[in-house]
# Entry
Amino acid sequence: GKHDIPPARLAALQKAAEYIKRLEDRETTLVLEVGGHTDSDGTPATNTPLSQRRAEAVKAQLVKYGVKEPGLQTRGYGAEKPIRPNDNEKNKFLNRRIQYSVVGNK
# Structure
C-alpha cells in the first residue's frame, strides 16, 4: 500500500528524467503519461487511488530532476492492466510498476 519511492529506485528515476529531458528538447510539444499500476491484491477502490498516488510521486520526482511539468500527466490504473498473471509473488511484484506512455501533444 505504499506510494513513496524507495531510495534504491532514485538512480533509475534520475536516468529516466535525463532521457525524458532529451526527448523534450527534440519534441517540445510531447506529452507523456506516468501510469501507475498495482497487483490484484485489494479492491479497485483501494488500488486505483494507490496507483494514482504512485504515479504522482514519480511525476513529482521527475520534475525535481528537471523534467518540465506541463509535459507530464498522471493516471492510476490500479490492477486493470497487468503485464503478468497475478498468480505468484514475482508476477505481483512485476505488476506493481510505473509505465511511461506518449499520449499526445501540448
Q: What stands out?
A: Strands lie at 30-36, 72-76, 98-105. Helices lie at 10-26, 44-64, 89-95. The mean pLDDT is 96.
